[in-house]
Amino acid sequence: xxxxxxxxxxxxxxxxxxxxxxxxxxxxxxxxxxxxxxxxxxxxxxxxxxxxxxxxxxxxxxxxxxxxxxxxxxxxxxxxxxxxxxxxxxxxxxxxxxxxxxxxxxxxxxxxxxxxxxxxxxxxxxxxxxxxxxxxxxxxxxxxxxxxxxxxxxxxxxxxxxxxxxxxxxxxxxxxxxxxxxxxxxxxxxxxxxxxxxxxxxxxxxxxxxxxxxx
Length: 215
Hints:
Layout lengths: L2 E5 L5 E5 L2 E2 H8 L1 H6 L2 E4 L2 E3 L4 E2 L3 E6 L4 H22 L4 E2 L4 E2 L2 E2 L3 E2 L10 H12 L6 E4 L2 H10 L3 H7 L8 E5 L2 E4 L33
Parallel strand pairs: 1-7
Antiparallel strand pairs: 1-2, 3-6, 4-5, 4-7, 8-11, 9-10, 12-13, 13-14
Helix pairs in contact: 3-4, 5-6
């Protein structure tokens, strides 16, 4: 059994088995803390709380009270929205779906269909339905070839364009439920943390801000 040293923000050092997750560290401190952890800093980089830690590391746990916790929660909510959109509107294509200061958005191409404000309650209901499935956000490292094959089969040219600027060894997919996306993460442990959603608005946008992009 190989042990690693985990240094907490107060300077204390605890030993854990190699491969321990930030969520397991939280559980060893208090179950109440573990219920509220959304993500963690591992040597200064924000990680999924369920990602194994393989070396000595400084770890800080993030909850809703931390900017990083809110950002992770909103990013995961964007992925949940994308899963709902894909279920409701098969063939929809996705650009990027980042968190922003007070929530999140997702760039989407709905093809011949135009979404209206009247569609939003239906999307919210589908999001909450999927949230109750308690689907885990699963991180997977993939090769560039594998990523290109996946999005070629899915016929999503936006993701293929994003892949052009990425290199082998730096590409990860995240899957929750029936939705898989090209994503660096991090994400919350599972969808059950998302208890409420409210979609506020729709807006038109040029792909990558370029008005010459006609897709």
